[in-house]
Specification:
Layout (H helix, E strand, L loop, with lengths): L1 H13 L18 E2 L6 E3 L2 E3 L9 E2 L3 H8 L4 E6 L1 H5 L1 H18 L5 E6 L3 E6 L4 H13 L2 E5 L7 E6 L3
Parallel strand pairs: 1-4, 5-9
Antiparallel strand pairs: 1-2, 2-3, 5-7, 6-7, 8-9
Helix pairs in contact: 4-5
């Protein structure tokens, strides 16, 4: 009997535990809290837009403003191809529209910056959901090839959209 227990514990030690990748920028502030930069309010367990907040609200920078200040994006969208070069202003308009729609519902889903290069457009975001929304929006509007990569070792996403003609 004692031997069986020993074998049972040894088997459990051999198992690998795979932890979910944690976002270091996601902290749970004291409720209620308000971001002094963008005025998003943390209440009911999430960041949200609010017309007003308690006078006693704690001041804490929200994760989106924190990532923007640190210039540490969680998502990257790369737009490439001949089509993108010819329709640059339309594509940028669609990207800004998708960001505004997403940010209205989710205050932490924002664009940090857009880098326009000769052969591509690179969009850096504060979360991992907005890049996917942008990539799928580009595919719905203009077709093209979409690749979404979630690296296992970090809380990030890379989205690549390409259309040649």
């Amino acid at each position: 009997m004692k031997k069986e227990l020993t074998n049972q514990f040894q088997e459990r030690k051999d198992r690998l535990i795979h932890e979910h990748v944690h976002d270091p920028y996601r902290t749970k502030p004291k409720t209620p809290a308000v971001c002094p930069i963008c005025f998003a309010v943390f209440r009911d367990g999430r960041w949200q837009w609010a017309a007003s907040w308690s006078i006693n609200a704690h001041h804490q920078i929200c994760p989106a403003c924190h990532r923007t200040r640190d210039n540490y994006p969680a998502g990257t969208v790369t737009v490439r191809g001949e089509f993108a070069a010819r329709h640059r202003s339309e594509i940028l308009g669609l990207i800004r529209h998708l960001e505004q729609r997403e940010k209205f519902l989710h205050p932490l889903h924002r664009i940090i910056r857009i880098e326009e290069k000769a052969d591509s457009i690179v969009i850096l975001t504060t979360d991992i959901h907005l890049p996917r929304e942008i990539g799928e929006g580009l595919r719905r509007a203009y077709q093209g090839d979409l690749e979404i990569i979630y690296p296992e070792e970090s809380y990030s996403v890379r989205v690549n959209w390409t259309r040649q003609s």
